[in-house]
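Hey, weird one. I pasted the Oxidoreductase sequence into the form twice and got a warning about non-standard characters only the second time. First submission, copied straight from the form history:
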Amino acid sequence: MTGNATHETPGLSGTPLRVGLVGYGLAGSVFHAPLIAATDGLVLDTVVTSDEERRAQARAEFPGVRFAASPQELWERADELDLVVIASPNKTHVPIATAALEAGLPVVVDKPIAGTAAEARALAALAEERGLLLSVFQNRRWDNDFRTLVRLLADGELGDVQRFESRFERWRPQPKGGWRESGDPQEIGGLLYDLGSHVVDQALTLFGPAALVYAECDVRRPGAAADDDTFVAITHVNGVRSHLYVSATAAQRGPRFRVLGRTAGYVKYGLDPQEAELRAGVRPAADRPWGEEPEELWGRIGSGESPLTGGGIPVRTLPGDYPAYYAAVADALRGKGENPVNALQAAAALDVLEAARRSAREGVTVKLSDTADPDSGSADTSADTKEQPV
């Protein structure tokens, strides 16, 4: 029943599903709260934060929202909620998700769901035991460029893919501080687990389980304590090679995607616009376009020529669609659809992240199970290592 169990709530009879949101920092205020509020059949009921400024911010955008000072207050009135969304710092994800499931509440957890694949699988087992939905917010499966690439691959526009290059690069020469850039392993900070969670998830979603992982994790900026310039290479079981770059030190950005197939390649520059729109206070609405980008940012498909010199054919970028994630969660809670991102898929990505961390630390290529099932999330990172990159 993992990912498909229903929670006996008023929402099943047509009334909105009531959501408790834990955390109102960047993730909670910019991503989760606006997307929850924009989803038919969901209502933002309670925000957990003790910060008065954040409460005022939430109250201004969502009049009538209730507040709690701690997650414990949610468990004490679990019968008043239908879903808990965890958008608090990474190190709190596992204990809060565990407590929510034990309180009988379905859960959405921001990525990464946990610091280790074993913890993710333990949460998945608990959700299975309780018959509750446990979903992971991997919103970048609904990025405009990723949706476009999925369509191109489904239509066979590139032929068999040989190499997938993905970059999520920023130019932030000065560290901002905070737990995301902390060197304390307990914080689960650094780009490998932050942006790396996205690019690895996308690669596994597109090309299936990993067989080999090689990585380089560097701390480039003066005063930085966690990796801020990281490269991960995956050899997938099917032979596709993914080269993934995440960086806060990119003075010049490379293409977001460069995908090379036997018959053609696809190159796309620029980031999906949805995060910038949400940060600017723009909200999804039925009466206006969402996630659209101008034609000059469309990627190009072709062979033999550089897109920078006009080579290839422009391909319209499909609109980004973050709202689709919570719409799918609402359907899953009502028994009308599948869990959009289950915890075992997240565990498979964590297998790769853990292997990458080991690879970077020891200077080796890490072999994962070559029979890993992408839906089971099973992998073996204790296998032999090799001394060359994949």
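That's the output from the first submission. The warning seems to come from a hidden character in my clipboard, not from the data itself. The chain has ten helices and 16 strands.
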